[in-house]
Specification:
Strand order of the largest sheet: 2-1-3-10-4
CATH class of the largest domain: Alpha Beta
Number of helices: 11
CATH architecture of the largest domain: 3-Layer(aba) Sandwich
Number of strands: 13
Order of helices and strands: EHEHHHEEEEHEHEHEEHHEEEHH
Strand content: 15-25%
Shape: globular
Number of domains: 3
Length: 303
C-alpha cells in the first residue's frame, strides 16, 4: 500500500535524487520502500532545451509543474535540486528537509584545468555564473549555450561540439560518473545551494511536513538557507552571475560570495561570519553591492 507520493522531474539525475529521498524516508519511518511512490512529472525546463532558462521563464520552469501537482494534492512532497529552485517561493510551500549536501564543486570536462584550455576554446554552458567566472580567468574563451541533461552535455564534449564544459560534481557523483576534474572553490565558487537536494511540502500538511522533517540534515539546511537569503537580499535572478557558499562550525556560520559582471570583466567578493539565526545574507549583500562597480551592481537589487 502506498503511504506517500514523492513528485520529481523525470531526468535521470532527478529520479536518482528522488530514490535517495525515498530510501532515507523509508529507513527513518521503518517502512518498505514500496510504501513510497515516485511520481515523475515533466517540466517545461526539461522540454525546452535550445534556449537559456533566463530567456524562457527562469527557474520556475523546473518547479511550476511540480508546484501545481503538490497544490492539487496529486503528490505529498516534491524533490528538487535546491540550486534550481526560485529564491522566493509561494507562502503555501515549505522546505521541510534537505539531504546531506554532496560535493559543492564544479567539474571541468575536456581538460584538467582552466589554464590548459587552448586559446579561444569553446566552452559549453548555460550558466551566467560559470560564463562570468570562466571569462574572468580567461577572457579569450568563447562561451556557447549548452543545456540538457548530464549525458547530453558529456556527449557535446565527446563529439567535439565544444572543447569543454562544466558540470556539478554532485550530480556526476550521484549518477556514478567518475569523469572530469574538480575546480577548487577558491578558483570557482559554486552556485548558491549547489549539491543540495531539498524536499518541499504544503505548509498546511502537518503530517507530510513532519514525515519529511525526519530526514532533514540540519547543517545542510542552515547553510543552504543562508545562501538563499543572500540571493533574496540581492534580488538576484537567472541573469545575475552570483556564487555563494556557506559553512558551519558549531554554531558559527561563514558565508562567502562573489558577484560578477556578465563578461567577467569585473568581480567583487567577500565574506561574513556570525551565529546561526543572524541575517548574514542581508549583511553580505549590502557589503558586496556597496563595493560593486556599476556593471556588476546593475545586475542585482533591481539595478
Amino acid at each position: 500500500m502506498v503511504r506517500f507520493r514523492l513528485g520529481t522531474r523525470g531526468s535521470p539525475l532527478a529520479l536518482t535524487q528522488a530514490h535517495m529521498v525515498r530510501a532515507a524516508l523509508a529507513e527513518a519511518q521503518g517502512w518498505s520502500e514500496d510504501a513510497i511512490e515516485i511520481v515523475p512529472i515533466k517540466t517545461t525546463g526539461d522540454r525546452v532545451q535550445d534556449r537559456a532558462l533566463a530567456e524562457i521563464g527562469g527557474k520556475a520552469l523546473w518547479t511550476k509543474e511540480l508546484d501545481r501537482a503538490l497544490y492539487d494534492r496529486e503528490i505529498d512532497a516534491s524533490v528538487h535540486s535546491m540550486k534550481d529552485v526560485e529564491t522566493i517561493r509561494p507562502d503555501w510551500l515549505h522546505v521541510a528537509a534537505m539531504l546531506p549536501r554532496a560535493d559543492v564543486r564544479d567539474r571541468l570536462i575536456g581538460v584538467e584545468t582552466i589554464a590548459e584550455l587552448p586559446p579561444g576554446a569553446v566552452i559549453g554552458t548555460s550558466s551566467p555564473r560559470r560564463r562570468a567566472q570562466l571569462l574572468a580567468h580567461r577572457p579569450d574563451l568563447t562561451i556557447a549555450l549548452l543545456r540538457g541533461n548530464v549525458d547530453t552535455r558529456l556527449a557535446a564534449v565527446a563529439n567535439g561540439d565544444v572543447d569543454a564544459t562544466l558540470l556539478a560534481a554532485a550530480g556526476l557523483d550521484r549518477l556514478g560518473r567518475a569523469v572530469g576534474h574538480a575546480v577548487p572553490t577558491d578558483q570557482m565558487l559554486p552556485a548558491p545551494a549547489q549539491g543540495a537536494v531539498g524536499i518541499e511540502t504544503r505548509a498546511d500538511d502537518a503530517a507530510a511536513t513532519m514525515l519529511i522533517a525526519s530526514i532533514d540534515h540540519a547543517e545542510t539546511h542552515a547553510c543552504v538557507m543562508a545562501e538563499r537569503s543572500l540571493l533574496a537580499a540581492l534580488a538576484a535572478d537567472c541573469h545575475s552571475p552570483v556564487a555563494a557558499l556557506a559553512s558551519l562550525a558549531g554554531e558559527m556560520l561563514t558565508l562567502r560570495a562573489e558577484l560578477l559582471a556578465e563578461d567577467g570583466s569585473a568581480r567583487v567578493g567577500g565574506w561574513v561570519e556570525g551565529v546561526l539565526g543572524e541575517e548574514l545574507g542581508a549583511r553580505l549583500a549590502v557589503d558586496l553591492l556597496d563595493r560593486s562597480p556599476p556593471e556588476v551592481r546593475r545586475l542585482f537589487a533591481g539595478g
